[in-house]
Amino acid sequence: MRKLQEGTIIYHHTGNTKATVIKYIPPDITIELSEKIAGKNFLTLPISHMGEWLFFDESDKFELIEHLAMREEYFQYCNKKIIETRKKILNVKKKPVHCENKAKDLLVTSIVKEEKNRYQTKKPALLQKTIKSDGTTSKVNVADISHLFRSNPGRTSNYEKLSNEELQRIKEVVEKRKIPFLVHFTRIENLASILDYGLVPVKRQKEMNIDSIRNDEIRIDERLDCTSISVGYPNYKLFYSFRNQKYPGSRWVIIFIKKDLLYNNDNYAYFCKTNAARVCSGRNDLSLLRNSNSLENMFCESIVYNDDYSSREITREKLDIPDFYPTDPQAEILIGNIIKVENIAWIGFQNSIDRKYFCEELGKEFLSKFDLRESPGLFEARSDYRFWRKDV
Questions:
Q1: Could you tell me the residue range of the domain that residue 29 belongs to?
Q2: At which of 90, 112, 139 does a domain end?
Q3: Which of 11, 112, 143, 206 could form a disulfide with 126 if both were Cys (CB 3.0 to 4.6 A apart)?
């Protein structure tokens, strides 16, 4: 987590002026400006200006206050607006304690408004794709791939649809928990294909001649007919290991998916209270994971956590997390069938560099069709990360 110290580069709200911290003696800092503000080269300001008048990144000036309030690097400096906004988001009545040393030790992230205004966009241009079926080759309109779900025997798409009553109960859980969105992370190289075809499970990608970079070559959950998604926040442990250990130097994006995907019968969902590999591996009957009870169970009051050192119970109350965070940060939902393009709400990039790279090199045609944002907060660990460390 970033902290102020002598030599730190920050940005002043006025003109997004770059500045260097030359003296840091709480509760004040003195900064040297790259360009004069009000005729001054140096300013001494309270550290509580962080998040309102001073920012770690140029782009943070344009972030919503709701985003900054959930980022510990700003919360630790106790700006009044940030404290009040965070209290509203988390519905926490207790007064936050000042300071750097007592603030929670982690960068949480962007929480957006629960309901994004539904935007209107033109559908992607119809594309032609060669698909091999029964030894023959034919061209089809891949913008309409519903026929792939219907007439081929042996497909996992022949799932039992849920009753309207059960779908309503699932919807009630979503509303009760105020789930704002679902998320899926992937390599930036896969994004153009996703914006053309939707999120296509690995098993279907071969059938549709779609090339992709796979994150996990060994799917222990054995569900190649499904796409793994998370509720409200990515599986930060897995996300970190992919980005920094398995594929260092790679670029990633987060796909934000509309929550109503969970209560319609176009797709089917398996609700896993922890990592799907633990829940699904070697298990044939997953029907018990397809109801409202299994969804609610993702937000259980306590969970037994096993690591290399011990087995311990972790309670939701101690985690102090929003209602829509699953108790276990590795909890996930496996979604069967293709998640259609129209279910994608927006795309989150880690920074402006990655967004610019995609727009200029890979996806110029998507600029006017999709909401492409910078969402750096969701590339960090979840706020309760310290409870899940192995050395606790």
A1: 9-90
A2: 90
A3: 143
Whether 3 is in a domain gets the answer: no
pLDDT value of residue 136 = 41
**Token digits for 286?**
């997953």
Say if residue 71 is in the same domain as residue 145. Answer: no
**What's the 3-state SS for the chain?**
CCCCCCCCEEEECHHHEEEEEEEEECCEEEEEEEEEECCEEEEEEEHHHECCCEECCHHHHHCCHHHHHCCHHHHCCCCHHHHHHHHHHHCCCCCCCCCCCCCCCCCCCCCCCCCCCCCCCCCCCCCEEEEEECCEEEEEECCCCHHHHCCCCCCCCCCCCCCHHHHHHHHHHHHHHCCCCEEEEEEHHHHHHHHHHCECCHHHHHHCCCCCCCCCCCCCCCCCCEEEEEECCCCHHHHHHHHHHHCCCCCEEEEEECHHHHHCCCCEEEEECCCHHHHHCCCCCCHHHCCHHHHHHHHCCEEEEECCCCEEEEEHHHHCCCCCCCCCCCCEEEEECCECHHHEEEEEECCHHHHHHHHHHHCHHHCCCCCEEECHHHHCCCCCHHHHCCCC
Query: pLDDT (tens digit, 9 = 90+) per residue, 359-377?
Result: 888 777 787 888 999 999 9
Which is more confidently placed, 94 or 151?
A: 94
pLDDT per residue as tens digits for the range 152-166: 323 344 568 999 999
Note whether 69 and 143 are same-domain residues: no
- Each residue's pLDDT tens digit, 318-337: 999 999 999 999 999 999 99
Domain final residue pick, 90, 119, 148? 90
Please tell me whether residues 347 and 200 are part of one structural domain: yes
Q: Is residue 255 part of a domain?
A: yes
Res. 150: pLDDT tops 90: no
What is the tens place of the pLDDT at every residue in 261-320?
A: 999 999 999 999 988 877 765 555 678 899 999 999 999 999 888 765 567 889 999 999
Q: What is the mean pLDDT of residues 187-215?
A: 88
**R_g of the chain, CA atoms, integer Å:** 23
- Tokens 């992919």 belong to which residue? 242
